[in-house]
Design goal:
This protein is 39% helix and 13% strand. By secondary structure, it is α/β, with parallel strands linked by helices. Helix 10 packs across helix 11. It starts with 8 loop residues before the first helix and ends in a 5-residue tail after the last strand. The mean pLDDT is 94. It binds ligand FNR. Keywords: Flavoprotein, FMN, Heme, Iron, Metal-binding, Mitochondrion, Oxidoreductase.
Length: 371
């Protein structure tokens, strides 16, 4: 279908669902247990209400900001998500092409279906990537990958260390479809086709997690990481104010945290980022000035993006939306996804009476229903 005829992210997901394989759909759509956190991630944004101000000149609207010291066109990023080539042969590089005109960041998954070199090939000068790390039990594999990323520091400007999934969550849609269709397009450089397989099969998620270390700790892992890269570290998957506070103690090595419950794919009934943002505001607001706080999970509308920014998030990530964009229309589908999100974000800012990202604050929202 003509991508321009699709007006919102749900419509794009609907088209992608029809076009991708059953196995791909099940892997992308799936979340842990009863999918409560996955649904709530999105629903919670409906509970936060907007407080538009009138008689504000809204001719201009500027979505640009800075992330980790880099200028970006929009405070949106692509969350790391494995196996983009399950959806479309353009894969993770297709996502890079699709977002290039928006000046958005892209975090490449440890379990991407293309190598980190292939993904940045042909990207625009100044287009910025992060690389997401799942520390492997065999540390030498992760060390070798970090060495490769360090060599591409003109493109890869930060490392995202994911902490919320030391083991995979129980994703029943994925498990049910484990034997459907083709084998995985694995070639991230970490995972290879000749990788030892998880005995007894399992869904895509369980196969990908085989080999991932479950013994990470604040001190030992960050010290180890400091020996293997000088790139700034972003910790992903924090879900409490206690952990956000601890992370801030590791500045400046840790430059940002991502409040995330892994799109509801790890621990079901874990809190959405909105709740964690509110906790941090209440118990340790100084975190916001020590490190950047990013969020992901459940973002489908520009109003969701704006509400997260009002609550203190510096950047907002999309996981499934980028994958479904790719599945619906390849590079063009990703482009359309970001075009919609950007236009909706601008409309929301204008109707709220905000000219620029730094104007957005708590005064633009009512959070009574979520407190
Ligand atoms: C993910 N996510 C993820 N996170 C991560 O750190 N490393 C990874 O390899 C993956 N892989 C992955 C695959 C798929 C198919 C999905 C849907 C998600 C989680 C991802 O980064 C992000 O936290 C969520 O996707 C955000 O929620 P939404 O935007 O999908 O609702």
């Amino acid at each position: 279908p003509n991508m321009q005829s699709l007006l919102n992210l749900d419509e794009i997901e609907e088209v992608a669902t029809k076009q991708v394989s059953q196995k791909c759909w099940a892997y992308y759509y799936s979340a842990a247990d009863d999918l409560f956190s996955k649904s709530f991630n999105n629903l919670v944004y409906r509970q936060v209400l907007l407080r538009p101000r009138v008689f504000v000149d809204c001719t201009k609207c500027d979505t640009s900001t800075t992330l980790l010291g880099h200028e970006v066109g929009i405070p949106l990023y692509v969350s790391p998500a494995a196996m983009a080539r399950l959806a479309h042969p353009a894969g993770e590089r297709g996502i890079a092409q699709g977002i290039s005109q928006f000046g958005a960041l892209q975090v490449v998954s440890n379990n991407a279906s293309m190598t980190p070199e292939q993904i940045v090939e042909g990207s625009l000068p100044g287009q910025i990537f992060g690389w997401q790390l799942y520390v492997q039990k065999d540390r030498s594999k992760s060390e070798a990958m970090l060495a490769r990323i360090n060599k591409m520091s003109d493109k890869y400007k930060f490392i995202v260390l994911t902490l919320d999934a030391p083991v995979p969550g129980k994703r029943e849609h994925d498990e049910r479809n484990q034997n459907v269709g083709a084998s995985l397009p694995v070639s991230s450089g970490v995972k290879t086709a000749d990788e030892p397989k998880r005995p007894g099969g399992g869904g895509v998620g369980q196969q990908l997690f085989f080999g991932t270390a479950a013994d990470l700790t604040w001190k030992s892992t960050l010290q180890w990481l400091a020996k293997h890269t000088t790139l700034p570290i972003v910790l992903k998957g924090l879900q409490t104010h206690e952990d956000a506070y601890l992370a801030a103690q590791y500045a400046p090595q840790v430059k940002a945290i991502i409040l995330s419950n892994h799109g509801g794919r790890a621990l079901d009934t874990a809190p959405p980022a909105v709740h964690t943002l509110l906790e941090i505001r209440k118990y340790c607001p100084e975190v916001f000035s020590r490190i950047e706080v990013w969020v992901d999970g459940g973002i489908k509308r520009g109003t969701d993006v704006v509400k997260a920014l009002c609550l203190g998030a510096k950047a907002v990530g999309v996981g499934r939306a980028a994958l479904f964009g790719l599945g619906a229309g390849g590079v063009e589908g990703v482009e359309r996804t970001f075009e919609i999100l950007k236009a909706e974000t601008e409309t929301c800012m204008r109707l709220l009476g905000a000219e620029k990202v730094s104007d957005l604050s708590l005064k633009h929202i009512n959070t009574r229903a979520v407190e």
